[in-house]
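I hope you will forgive my troubling you with a question about protein structure. Could you please explain, in whatever detail you think fit, how the structure tokens follow from the sequence? Thank you for your consideration; the sequence and its tokens are set out here.
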Amino acid sequence: MSVGEKAKAKTERAVGKVVRKVAHAVGNETTAAKGAALEARGKARDVKERSKDSFKR
């Protein structure tokens, strides 16, 4: 996993989590769903990159 891709995945997960929690606390469910989607996209990117690394070995 390249350093840039790892950073993008971690950033998306962190930003998504923060957006989701803040929006949920405020009561904005639409934005909370968008934050959850961003967090899920970061997790998916991380899984994708890890699977690439496992085939390189």
Notes: The helical segments are 3-26, 29-56. The mean pLDDT is 89. The CA atoms of residues 9 and 42 lie 4 Å apart.
